[in-house]
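== Sequence entry ==
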Amino acid sequence: MIRTPSFDQPDLAAEIVDSTRFPHGWRTPYIKGKGTSPPPSDLSDASDWFGERVSMTEGGSYIAGVPSMDGTDDEFRTAAFVAIPSVTAAVSKAMGGGAKITVLTEGTAFDPDPDVKPRDESELVAATVAGAARNTGAKTPSFDTWDDDPVNVYDPKSPVWDRLEEATGDRDVARAAIAVRMLVVGATVSDLEEVGILDDRSALRFEEMTGRKVPNKVTDPIKADLRRLVYPHEQDDEPTVVSAVSALYDSMRASNLLRKVHEAERDGGVAIAVVPPWMGYALNPVIARQNAREGNRHKQSSLDLESGWGRLAARKPSRKPLGDCYEAAFKFIMDACQFAPENESRYTLVHAEVMGQGPLEGTTFGHAFVVKDRAVVVDRSNGRNLEMPAFLYYAIGQISDIGNEHQYTWAEALEKALKYETYGPWDLKTRSGL
């Protein structure tokens, strides 16, 4: 029996798109009629199409959702006459300011050899940047991929597999689902067997998921059937385990992209990132909100997915708190996890009813704190910087005895904060009302 992934560690793309919801609140970054829509058939609507898929960050980085150029005239014209000039304009601006440019492409880093012909739309943009640098005498750009080790499914040691396994509860399920997705986008069975994505165990899971054995050759009809499992929304079908795992994988890739952009800006440069149209569409509103936000403490480089601390701070809490524990705990877990995917499983936000001490002895009240590594409580309320073994903290507050506790991953906390527009409490109801 294959269980549906619980997805308690979401990344950016799946949380920022208002679209079909997967089980447990997971959202697909593929949007029927939006992120996956083809480029316009003529140039009259091209600027609108790209306006929804192209963004510039506050720090001057450029993220462009460029359609695949598979040889059709419409796609080539749209990319050549809209995407490339807009990228060139951003590059010129960066070069004029002397900023170091990092070009981020999908898959592998671009080879800037001028004698090498670009193989796809991503490399075409990279070649444009390289040519502009040579022709203007500007600093030579650096070339990197936003699809590197942390999300490289072709590397069996990549942390992407640990996170997919955690979400599905079974690495063979994760490998089988990724195999379906990779076959749909053009990988061969031998490719997947060579890197260990497909073996005897994952092949059995593949058969459970798809109702067919792993094919020796992926024909067009087989690919069409597999595609329905990866992108069920295209046929108005219900989400599948395959589609959920695929969405998680793609959202992790989007998060990794934003991490690379953040790193480029942090080092005083800018990034030019070429992404699939769906990712450009998904990230567009996030970056727009980020740029419009005033008092952003990450100012030029934070690409977080929430819509502003100010909106939360302005909202009155659901009941009068005893101090700032809800705000302090919420901000601590956001800071710890937002740009550090490796921390997502380490930190848990807790809202609990605790027994008061001193003047509040004998009175219970709501309190918020963070548990790190399931062993240490971090309490930043009222200006404190307290770290204490969890068993001792729970004993002092009689938390286990009272038994009124709600735990949230950082993503669940973010979803609650955005839904209720308050730092908390969201679900906790205490006997005292405090």
Q: What stands out?
A: The chain has a mean pLDDT of 75. The first strand starts at residue 54 and ends at 56.
